[in-house]
Amino acid sequence: MKEIPLNKKYFIPGFKFSAIPAGIKKRSKKPDLSIIYSEKPSTVAGVFTTNKIKAAPVKLDIKRIKSNKGQAIIINSGNANACTGEKGFIDAEEITTLTANELNISKELVYVSSTGIIGRPLPMAKIRKAIPEAVNNLSPYSLEKVANAIMTTDTFPKILIRKINIGGKTGTIAGIAKGSGMISPNMATMLSYIVTDIYISTNALKHALTNAARTSFNRLVVDNDMSTNDTLMIMANGMLGNKSITLQSPQYKVFENALNGLSRELAKMIAIDGEGATKFIEIIVTGAKKEADAEKIARAIATSMLVKTAIYGNDPNWGRIIAAIGYAGVEIAENKISIFINNCQIVINGVSNPKARTSRSLFADKEITITVDLRLGNKSADFFTCDLTEKYIKINAEYST
Amino acid sequence: MKEIPLNKKYFIPGFKFSAIPAGIKKRSKKPDLSIIYSEKPSTVAGVFTTNKIKAAPVKLDIKRIKSNKGQAIIINSGNANACTGEKGFIDAEEITTLTANELNISKELVYVSSTGIIGRPLPMAKIRKAIPEAVNNLSPYSLEKVANAIMTTDTFPKILIRKINIGGKTGTIAGIAKGSGMISPNMATMLSYIVTDIYISTNALKHALTNAARTSFNRLVVDNDMSTNDTLMIMANGMLGNKSITLQSPQYKVFENALNGLSRELAKMIAIDGEGATKFIEIIVTGAKKEADAEKIARAIATSMLVKTAIYGNDPNWGRIIAAIGYAGVEIAENKISIFINNCQIVINGVSNPKARTSRSLFADKEITITVDLRLGNKSADFFTCDLTEKYIKINAEYST
Asked: For this structure, is B196 an active site residue?
């Protein structure tokens, strides 16, 4: 097993990280228990799955985050602690209590996430034993280890860091994410944690995070399955010492743009790493009357198994794209529709463009952009996805047993 | 190529059928042009795709069926005549006119269906040439030939015949269907034609067909892609000479039940023949407050790629089923949910049933029934689907080119 070295590139003032193997993933000795810790209590915001079946840790986090305060997040992979009844909730609470005790902070400041198989009780004996070691291992240079330890079927860790100028000071925003299957609009078995040393008000942080999620993780689909465990959290510890950013501050837009950009890049990484994917696909719908219409159509194309298999097969079968446009539930004018694959216009006024090359080479790139122009208005939306391959089937036919 | 013999088993008084190769399917000499003809003008009813992008023949049929009268349907496979602009509509009209002329009936009594690739003009020269031959070949014993000729990626023809007693006389209902991909709730590249010699009023026929579609073809999913060409039509020529069935007749329920049963069997055949499928899956949701709730949940499970790949892999990963229940958009009580695979209860009160065998053998049957009991009310709904396999990907990565 390759040990992830400490990496000074991913340093965010006041934050420490650790990831150790606790034996939750039975058949591997990979790290599966991680902690994200801030030296100071931080302002936190979160977005969680809208699935009516919520995992125990998600239920606990939703309760705790009402305070908008937090100092640590403990995350396990290998077991989702979902559909585990009352015991699951008690287990989640105990994990936060043990972590809080080791860190010598209030348990109300500790959050917990789980990802993995649904319906099995957590191996609490192993977790109880591992928490002190996880706390002992905290280091300012271990974010990359956490990005690795939260992976399930991911093939690469997703980690990014950005520096931005806030009133003459250089603030840092760093983010990690995991997810490659059960990925659907409104999040998925997607976990993402963003940390920053920038000082920002509760309202401004919440607003920025909701906005970032809307145009990144909520515009992402691998399959169409929404998870019970989706979690996106941000912790802002204010160690930069800038004047607090409020919704009215001139710096707010700078922060929001940086957070949007980082979230979109993380979402794109998840699509690139979609289970079995060979291609990244961006769907852009323009010329809609409403952004919601553009989003519905982009989502219908992004979730179409026939579009995704056609792209996998390098097959310029645009009929599948226009069929998806038609069933998205949005009023359209068939004879106004244009469709572009990358820069090639294959459909003009709803029919085949006679001048287009519709050869297989059109879909041969590793990154495909499908642009649909409805010519009904000036609103637009985009969506990230990937192709659908035999390997997706293989991975998911074999996952749990 | 295997020639389909005349088959006296599928005889419906007053109906004739033909299917010939017209060269529309370029690389094969298989029959691809079919006619269904009634000696007498019939009462007709139809249900068509709700896709906003409708193929030209569907647009024409929707216009004509307002009369509730018809005498012939001409069907081609190999080309969908969808997204073909004004010319597509002119072509569809010309096909009905040429057919009407050969049959010596009004063109207003002729309907047309197309299935196949989207966005390419019909090869009209070939079709013009073939229509007289198709009319010359009409025979009372060729329904099975039509069931074969309308196939695209289907691996077997779907054909059924039922006899029912209507006021002491034995009436006949026969149906054929095609479809194995682009199959989604509210129909799909699904074509189905039902013919009967029973005399029935326009209103009763419409009512019975709508009702039958609701609990058969509209409860069927292979992938999630709704086609531009879906068509379900019924022709009733009244040759049985029974007293006309109206909505008030005691015979109405007999007719409706027979039509429901036949439609459900055809829908089931489509699921069994789903592209690349190795297993037929029926999802039954009971204990819902409203039938619409039960249907939403059944649909969410039936369209879940993760559930379908798990069943393919014989993997009793019920977490994927409960996750789909949770994102169906229906209020549920997690701690009341029961889930059964065939007769084995794997989930009790929302958690794993400790007494259940959750071995791979649970999913090893060729026909799997997933039953979900919500314990919130007494409404139920079911859904037909199939597993998702590497072969589906292979078929659809290679289909058009």
From this structure: no
